[in-house]
Write a structure and sequence with these properties.
The chain is mainly β. It has a single domain (9-108, 126-167, 195-238, 266-279), classed as Porin. The chain contains 2 helices and 18 strands. A hairpin with a 6-residue loop joins strand 8 and strand 9 (150-179).
Length: 280
């Protein structure tokens, strides 16, 4: 009977919850406590049924990039970043486990787009994002039995991260001006030097899909060297409350009868990390 009353959470409900969390700017500390308490509760609840518990520390250099989902802003390649993590595996058998821990990493790359600055001007904006997240991952981990001194694994799951450092280098200049009923490009536009700005336009929370594989090489006893690769992809838009002007195929702003055609800025960030650590 207990199972009959379990609530099923739809993808739409998850999206609405993430939106509320990202819009709740004033309660960052409260949300962080909720994340930590949830992770600890899951770990302690599962530990009663486990056959072991392993912990470790690792370095996580990564290459991150951003993707446009509105197809009106452009992105510019990948960026190298650094991260580190505390790992905890809750073993239910020799060959499978629940993986969790605390993952600290940075992501970001450059985006460019047209933005309506005033009723009579359009600005060309270039931003180089540098976001730092503290993430609580929960993955299902499949492991082989030890082959020689080596154990191979694959993992799949999700994560929820808090954006603890939202900043970007921005270049902004006026590129189009309105003259009567027409919009004309600004000749000899002055391009300023990059300016470091706050990143309130980046989402506070980041839900992600996590896929990885790697191996552990036993050194002595239960201590092992761990090397792996992890793909981490955000599930919802990284951008918040941003408006972009629609472009044609050559990158020129599109205009309608009442001015530039605009849409909401949508895009995701992803990264590929190489993990090198020690498991105890």
């Amino acid at each position: 009977m207990g199972r009959a009353h379990e609530r099923k959470i739809s993808f739409g409900q998850i999206a609405r919850t993430m939106t509320k969390m990202n819009n709740d700017r004033g309660n960052r500390a409260t949300w962080m406590k909720v994340l930590l308490m949830t992770g600890m509760g899951m770990a302690f609840q599962s530990h009663a049924q486990t056959q072991g518990f392993r912990m470790g520390l690792a370095l996580d250099p990564n290459v991150s990039w951003m993707n446009s989902r509105d197809f009106e802003h452009t992105t510019d390649g990948g960026r190298a970043h650094f991260g580190y993590q505390f790992m905890a595996d809750i073993l239910f058998a020799e060959t499978y486990a629940i993986g969790t821990g605390v993952n600290v990493f940075r992501t970001g790359s450059s985006v460019e787009y047209w933005e309506p600055t005033t009723d009579s001007t359009l600005s060309r904006v270039s931003r180089n994002f540098n976001n730092q997240y503290v993430e609580l991952p929960v993955t299902f981990k499949l492991r082989t039995k030890e082959i020689g001194y080596t154990t191979y694994y694959g993992k799949f799951g999700c994560g929820l991260g808090l954006n603890t450092r939202r900043e970007a280098e921005e270049i902004r200049y006026v590129g189009f001006e309105r003259s009567g009923d027409t919009w004309d490009p600004v000749e000899d536009a002055v391009v300023p030097s990059p300016d470091l700005i706050s990143g309130d336009f980046a989402s506070l929370f980041r839900a992600s899909m996590i896929v990885g594989l790697g191996f552990e090489r036993r050194i002595a006893g239960t201590t092992a060297l761990m090397v792996g690769f992890t793909y981490n992809n955000s599930l919802f838009s990284t951008h918040k409350d941003q408006t972009v002007v629609k472009e044609d195929v050559s990158g020129v702003p599109r205009f309608g009868g009442d001015g530039p055609l605009t849409t909401e800025m949508l895009g995701h960030d992803s990264f590929l990390a190489m993990t090198v650590g020690v498991v105890f």
